[in-house]
Fold this sequence. Notes:
By secondary structure, this protein is an alpha+beta fold. The chain contains seven helices and five strands, in the order ααββαβββαααα.
Amino acid sequence: MSGETPEPRPPLPLTEEELRARTIGELRPLSEPIRIVESDPRWPEQFQCEAERIAGALGSRALRIEHTGSTSVPGLAAKPILDMLLVVADSGDEAAYAPALEGIGYTLRIREAEWHEHRMFRGNDPDSHLHVFSASCPEIDRILLFRDWLRRNAADRELYEQTKRHLASEKWTYQQNYADAKTAVVEEILGRARLHLK
């Protein structure tokens, strides 16, 4: 694993060419509007079941498995897709973990070697996104800070939900376009969360 600082992402939103370069397999346009649903009390249980399956497949190679994204925040409306964070020793070493994940039904969909060696696998039962990062990657702390702040702060939780509902009502070519459009409010909320840490 390289000790060099990863290059930052290109300016958002990502272009179609950039999306295609990161996507494994077909880049699929959205066939229907983004769907935001009310918070489901089953989401934490679904995560726990998936975390156990992942841990069972990877054993000690799974250094950390966390429930992230909007489905990890009680009371927050979300797309009905579980976001999960998997920490491994070196996310760039796909041979060390990808076959085991594929063996339990996960499919590699995103490879971002230039951005923290991020990988994203798609699961279908339940619908899920499994984000893989290397141990000590700074993005891990950023993701968990955002989750934990939204769990504690009702005002920012409401702001984030309203923003998502507004953006979901717009027309997007790809799901990533919708995700990119949330960047400004995510950074605004993270700014307040970081101030609270000081």
